Amino acid sequence: MGSSIIAQKESRFKTTQEDRVPKLHYRLRKELWCLAFIAPQLALFLLFTAYPIVMSYVYAFFDWNGYGPLKEFTGFDNFTETLKDPIFWNAFRNSLLFMMWLVLVQVPLALLAALLMNAEWLKGKIIYRTIIFLPVVTTTAVVGLVMRFVFGAYKGLFNEMLLKIGLIAQPVDWLGSVDTALLIVVIVGIWKSFGMKMVYWLAGIQSLPKEVFESARIDGASSIQLLRYITIPLLLPVGSVIVLMSAVNALHVFDLVQTMTGGGPAFKTDMVDVYIYRYAFSGSGEARVGFASAAGVLYGIVVMGISILLGLFVRLSGGRRNQKRF
């Protein structure tokens, strides 16, 4: 009796082992196919993203013009020179101002637009959403070039409109004045990515549980009370993520600024991305790739720090929401 039980167990063990072999072979073959499909994307990422990032840290310690071997090791001289350069701090200040304006103005306005686009009484929602979202899918460099003509001093569309309605007596050089250039860049930046933030908010609103709103309406809550006590509190975790993404994206605005103003006038719209590009590629005289890399490394550290702080804020807001639930 005992020997038969042992024999049955051994046969079962053999069959399970035999079944595992083809299953393991199938899984390995499946994983290899997955690797084959992602290999081109991985190769492009390593070649055009990972490798430049790693090498930028190497170049930052050399006085290198972008050609030939790395010979002149300078240590931390490039970092020291960057930190002592007032133009760098001016560009850093402008980048932070641009980020703050986009977060403080664009995010709340996008929330209002999303609430409007989600209203049951609004007709033609798809058309309105498409119109608002169109600038997002438009190339930023093209938008910058078009806006140069729109806000141009000579026969610019914006000046022509203001002249016709009598708000100004003569054309204004909106992008050539130190008083208005940064403001115009901020306005265009808000308009360019406004649709994406609206879609984020709209997705968050549509994911809220409808039962809560129905119960509140049965209890006699008004639309303002629903917005104040239910919609906004439930959207706080989503809103913190939107703020995080908006802030990080707003810190990189090279293509828009480069095509609209090039950092001028008098470095009034100069951003760190434009500052780095100017020294690495298009500066007067010999290019300074090592110095530009040092500036990029410092700016990358700052952006990483801001991302970490905002990420902690997102986690804390999510934790507080869970505590309130229980």
TrEMBL record:
Belongs to the binding-protein-dependent transport system permease family. Keywords: Cell membrane, Membrane, Transmembrane, Transmembrane helix, Transport. Gene3D superfamilies: MetI-like. Pfam families: BPD_transp_1. It is a multi-pass membrane protein. GO terms for cellular component: plasma membrane. It comes from Paenibacillus sacheonensis. GO terms for biological process: transmembrane transport. It is found in: Cell membrane. This is ABC transporter permease subunit. The lineage of its organism: Bacteria, Bacillati, Bacillota, Bacilli, Bacillales. SUPFAM superfamilies: MetI-like (SSF161098). The keyword Transport applies.
